[in-house]
Design brief:
two-stranded antiparallel ribbon; lipid metabolism; about 55% helix; Ubiquitin-like_domsf; SRD5A/TECR
Length: about 300
């Protein structure tokens, strides 16, 4: 059959396709016709309602027939989500390291790091190294890419707010070992309890990521109802446990910069959780009605 491809800019063109061709087959044919438009760069829609054609489906699933017209949008240069995450989490690792190690040079004062600063530095590095390892070995992405230009916006949250903004203040001389603030926040029992709570939250977060990974076989976009740690109460326990980890970190440091980061991050995760919660309810009629989006028994 012949279908007409109508780009947003440029002249329409025709393609010869098998009646049982898949969306991926169509994208490959478009790529041959327009080499710069590789598959992840294409957004294809069909019909008056502009239904998006999804990989893994056949054209016949959308009732596309001979001489039909399909709209094509160029999404622009793309970058893989795995690369995006690796770049995002590298920033805080770099800035926490530099601002802790070279705090004397940055602040122009030589001082001894307090116990709180040492523990905060260790916990921050552990968190972001864990995220890097999960990105490389755990996460399976339902969407392969995003527009390359968005990496700057996505990275700003982690590099600036989670990196520079926090590290500059909490590793400053104001919280050094000889200051009253540094001594007040460095009690052995206090630090130990908060460190353990942070570790528990991080381990629970990691376990949820493993549960989500095992729901989706490699190379597929399969979606199932998740069960296990935290899922009896909320749709996104990974976001809940991460919020708990950063709340503990904020209590440990007792600095407003950490609380700002925690509040902003929690707000963003809550928006994502609401969206995923609605998707689960829409996609699975049998989805547990007692589950909340992110906060148990609340919302």
């Amino acid at each position: 059959m012949k279908v007409t491809i109508k780009p947003r800019s440029g002249k329409p063109f025709e393609l010869d396709l098998d009646a049982q061709a898949s969306v991926e087959d169509l994208k490959k044919s478009i790529h041959k016709q327009v080499p710069r438009l590789y598959g992840d760069r294409q957004r294809l829609t069909f019909g008056e309602k502009k239904v998006t054609l999804v990989d893994g489906k056949k054209l016949s699933d959308y009732d596309i027939k001979d001489k039909d017209e399909i709209s094509l949008k160029d999404l622009g240069p793309q970058i893989g989500w795995r690369t995006v995450f690796l770049v995002e989490y590298f920033g805080p690792i770099l800035f926490h390291y530099l601002m802790y190690t070279y705090a004397d040079l940055i602040h122009g004062v030589t001082f001894e790091r307090s116990h709180m600063q040492k523990v905060a530095f260790f916990l921050a590095l552990c968190h972001y190294v864990k995220r890097e390892l999960e990105t490389m070995f755990v996460h399976r992405f339902s969407h392969g890419t995003m527009p390359a230009r968005n990496i700057f916006k996505n990275s700003a949250h982690y590099w600036i707010l989670g990196g520079v903004f926090i590290a500059y203040f909490i590793y400053s001389p104001a919280f050094g070992a000889q200051t009253e603030a540094g001594k007040a926040l460095s009690g052995d029992t206090r630090t130990l309890v908060l460190g353990v709570l942070f570790a528990i939250a991080e381990l629970c977060n990691g376990q949820v990521h493993l549960i989500l990974r095992n729901l989706r076989p490699a190379g597929t976009r399969v979606r199932k109802i998740p069960y296990g740690l935290g899922f009896s109460f909320v749709s996104c326990p990974n976001y809940f446990f991460e919020t708990m980890a950063w709340t503990v970190f904020s209590i440990l440091t007792s600095h407003w910069s950490c609380w700002v980061f925690t509040i902003v991050a929690t707000g963003q995760m809550y928006i994502w959780a609401i969206k995923k919660h609605k998707q689960y309810r829409k996609e699975f009629p049998e989805y547990p009605k007692s589950r909340k989006a992110m906060f148990p028994f609340i919302s």
